[in-house]
Amino acid sequence: MIRLGLTFDDVLLEPRKTAVNRRDASVETRLSKKARLAIPLLSAASDTVSDARFAIALGKCGGMAVLHRNCSLEEQVKMVKEVVKAGVAVGAGVGPKDVERAVALSEAGASAIFIDCAHAHAPGIISAMKEMKRRFKSLASQTRHSLLQRENKSLPPKTASARPTEQSFGRAPFMKGRIQTQLIVGNIVTKEAARDFASVADAFKVGIGPGSICTTRIVSGVGVPQLTAIMDVVSVAKAKKIPVIADGGIRTSGDIVKALAAGASSVMLGSLFAGSEEAPGEVITVEGKKYKSYRGMGSKEALEKRHAVDRYTVTDNIQPTTNNGEGAQKGKMHVVEGVAGKVLYRGTVADIVEQLVGGIKSGMGYIGAKTIEDMPKQARFIQITGAGLSESHPHSLE
C-alpha cells in the first residue's frame, strides 16, 4: 500500500476562536532536553551560512547557529571560541563517528553537537553517540565543579549554587559549562529511526531532501515529504519528551508555523539566512539586484573542500575524517546530492529574524496558541488542492 506524504504547500491551518493577541505570544522553545532558545530558529551547518560572524549575529537575536564542518578541526574550534567569547551559545556539526572532534568542540565551548549526516539511521552511529555522551558528561562534571567552587566562595552557605538542570540561550549572557553539551542526531525521517535513537539523542533533526539546494530525492529517489516526516518523528519523540528540529524545505514564516504546529520545537534554515549581510561571501549585484552565494553541502563545490565528504560517502564502513579530510577520501565514492547558486540579499540577520518571528506570532494568534508548546494542541490542518495553493499566493495583479 502506498502512503500519502504531505509537505508545507499541501496544507493550511484553520483559524481558531482565540483570545491570544499575537503580541503576547511567546516564541521561547525547547532546543533539546536540557536547553531552551529564545526564538525557534537555527541556521544550517552550511559553509555559505554558518560561520563565526553569522553565529554571533543570530545568537544575539536569541537563535542558534550550527557552525559548519567543511574546514579543519582547528578552524572549527577557532570559530566556536570566537562565538563563545562574544557571549552567545553556538552549536557545531560533526561527522557521524567523529568522537574526538565532538569532544574538542565541546571543550572549546560548543553548547550542542549536531551529528551531521545525510542519513543518520545507520550502523555504528548509536555506539559513537554513546561514547560522545560519556565524554561530554565527564567534561561537564569537571567544568561544573570548577564553576561551583568559584560561585559558592562568594555566596552565603544557604544560597550556594545547585547543579543546573536546564539552560536558556538568548535571554541572558551565555555561561559556558552550565549544562552538559547537548547531542543532536540528524538527519532522520522515520518512526523507526526515532525509536532507535531515543536513548542517546537530546533532540532529533528531521529532513531528507527537502532543502532548496538538496538533490537527494532526485539522485536517489529516497525521502519523505517534510510535513509527514515531522509528524512521524514527533509521534515517537513526544512520548520520550525529545524535541524535534525541522530541517529544510522552509521558504516562508508560514512554513515555520506549519512545522511548529506539526510538533517541531524549532526549525533550521539555510536559504533564508544565506542571503543575510552576516553570512559568508560578498554581495553580488546582477542587473541591479543584490545576491549572495549559497550551496548545499552535497554540492560538487562543497565536496571539493573534502572536509565533510563523509556526509555523502557511499560506503559500508564510515570512518572519521582527519583534519585534512583524507579519511573519507580513500577508497570511497562521493555522490553529488546538492547544487550551488545564489539567493537574494535580504539584509541583516536581525531584520530577517524580526520578519520571521513576526510571522510566527501572527500564526500563533490565528490558531489561538500562546506558546510554541500549545501550537500542536491548537492545530487543525486542512489539505488543499493546487488551486488552493494558487489562491494562497498574490494573484490577479497587473
Automatic annotation (TrEMBL):
<feature type="binding site">
    <location>
        <begin position="207"/>
        <end position="209"/>
    </location>
    <ligand>
        <name>NAD(+)</name>
    </ligand>
</feature>
<feature type="active site" description="Proton acceptor">
    <location>
        <position position="311"/>
    </location>
</feature>
<feature type="binding site" description="in other chain">
    <location>
        <position position="211"/>
    </location>
    <ligand>
        <name>K(+)</name>
    </ligand>
</feature>
<feature type="binding site">
    <location>
        <position position="337"/>
    </location>
    <ligand>
        <name>IMP</name>
    </ligand>
</feature>
<comment type="similarity">
    <text>Belongs to the IMPDH/GMPR family.</text>
</comment>
<feature type="active site" description="Thioimidate intermediate">
    <location>
        <position position="214"/>
    </location>
</feature>
<feature type="binding site">
    <location>
        <begin position="270"/>
        <end position="271"/>
    </location>
    <ligand>
        <name>IMP</name>
    </ligand>
</feature>
<feature type="binding site" description="in other chain">
    <location>
        <position position="209"/>
    </location>
    <ligand>
        <name>K(+)</name>
    </ligand>
</feature>
<feature type="binding site" description="in other chain">
    <location>
        <position position="214"/>
    </location>
    <ligand>
        <name>K(+)</name>
    </ligand>
</feature>
<feature type="binding site">
    <location>
        <begin position="116"/>
        <end position="118"/>
    </location>
    <ligand>
        <name>NAD(+)</name>
    </ligand>
</feature>
<keyword id="KW-0520">NAD</keyword>
<protein>
    <submittedName>
        <fullName>Guanosine monophosphate reductase</fullName>
    </submittedName>
</protein>
<feature type="binding site">
    <location>
        <begin position="247"/>
        <end position="249"/>
    </location>
    <ligand>
        <name>IMP</name>
    </ligand>
</feature>
<feature type="domain" description="IMP dehydrogenase/GMP reductase">
    <location>
        <begin position="177"/>
        <end position="395"/>
    </location>
</feature>
<dbReference type="InterPro" id="IPR013785">
    <property type="entry name" value="Aldolase_TIM"/>
</dbReference>
<feature type="binding site">
    <location>
        <begin position="294"/>
        <end position="298"/>
    </location>
    <ligand>
        <name>IMP</name>
    </ligand>
</feature>
<dbReference type="GO" id="GO:0006183">
    <property type="term" value="P:GTP biosynthetic process"/>
</dbReference>
<feature type="region of interest" description="Disordered">
    <location>
        <begin position="147"/>
        <end position="167"/>
    </location>
</feature>
<feature type="binding site">
    <location>
        <position position="212"/>
    </location>
    <ligand>
        <name>IMP</name>
    </ligand>
</feature>
<keyword id="KW-0630">Potassium</keyword>
<dbReference type="Pfam" id="PF00478">
    <property type="entry name" value="IMPDH"/>
</dbReference>
<dbReference type="InterPro" id="IPR005990">
    <property type="entry name" value="IMP_DH"/>
</dbReference>
<dbReference type="GO" id="GO:0003938">
    <property type="term" value="F:IMP dehydrogenase activity"/>
</dbReference>
<feature type="domain" description="IMP dehydrogenase/GMP reductase">
    <location>
        <begin position="5"/>
        <end position="138"/>
    </location>
</feature>
<dbReference type="InterPro" id="IPR001093">
    <property type="entry name" value="IMP_DH_GMPRt"/>
</dbReference>
